[in-house]
Amino acid sequence: MSTVNTVTGPVDSAELGNVLVHEHVFVLGEEYRENYQYDWDEEEKIAEAARDLRELKSLGMDTILDPTVLGLGRYIPRIQRIAEQIDLNIVVATGLYTYNDIPFQFHYTGPGLLFDVSEPLVTFFVKDLTEGIADTGVKAAFLKCAIEEQGLTPGVERVMRAVGQTSVQTGAPITVHTNPHTQSGLVAQQVLSEEGADLTKVVIGHSGDSTDLDYLMKLADAGSILGMDRFGLDVLLPFEDRINTVVALVEKGYADRMALAHDASCFIDWFGPEAKRQAVPKWNYRHISEDVLPALRERGVSDKDIDTMLVDVPRRYFE
């Protein structure tokens, strides 16, 4: 057992219950919102998020891991207001989300740069994990970085190495957004292992977008957790293919190296709400409870294997 920091305070890892390992509450560019979303109603959006998360709790989920970090609009005071209204753990992350460059705030400051100092990314990430995020008192509990189709650009590599170094210093686990079609999870494993990170404490995010069992088993055989974490995004991979892949991996003995989620959110400003509902009607917090778990059981996945993916694997991630 170990202590896991949530938005409302520390809990024992044994108390996390059923965990969805990759969900967002808000994906919202604050600068964009301040300048262009004139119709934003803060109270309404907070109430809607609290409603959605209470519903998720009623469907049997106890904890979500929210990897909304710099680059995705992390704003903890809003999350605190929501967390106070619900009986569900929200665990937040630190890190930086980019497919290419890092923000200009880091272009000239860091090892070997114009202002040659120790890596500020590591300094910030460690503070978020050990002291708290800004002045909120909320501590992050895991790290997040990304590697997409563009591959290991200089900016992506710098963030990933900073994440790996922070994990070594603090013991915090890692989630990596990956593109399985370019097998970028293998690149992430290589870079993180070079920094000394423990690959058993790494979720290779969005592995569930792939049906390539050889690739997925290679990731899992190196110790990492496969994030089968985009249920509902059927435009990227149909529902049946996602189910078939999980079933096949369970049959091959990999239930203890998979974790489930939707990568959904209460609000995301990347597209309009109506367009989202039309394109991906099942991309919501209810989908796993209402559709995915029944489908897995129908295909012969046992309750024990489901508990392994929802309870045991996330718990081990933190322990």
- SSE ordering: EEEEHHEHEHEHEHEHEHEEHHH
Number of separate helices: 11
CATH-assigned fold name: TIM Barrel
Overall mean pLDDT: 97
Global shape = globular
Q: How many DSSP E strands?
A: 12
Strand order of the largest sheet: 3-5-6-7-8-9-10-11
Task: Tell me the number of structural domains.
Answer: 1
Q: What percentage of the residues does DSSP assign to strands (E)?
A: 5-15%
Ranges with pLDDT <50 over ≥5 residues?
none
* Helix content class: 40-55%
In the CATH hierarchy, the architecture is Alpha-Beta Barrel
In the CATH hierarchy, what is the class? Alpha Beta
Class by SSE composition: alpha/beta
CATH superfamily: Metal-dependent hydrolases
Rg estimate, integer Å: 19 Å
Oligomeric grouping of the chains? single chain
Distance between the termini: 6 Å
Largest sheet: 8 strands, parallel
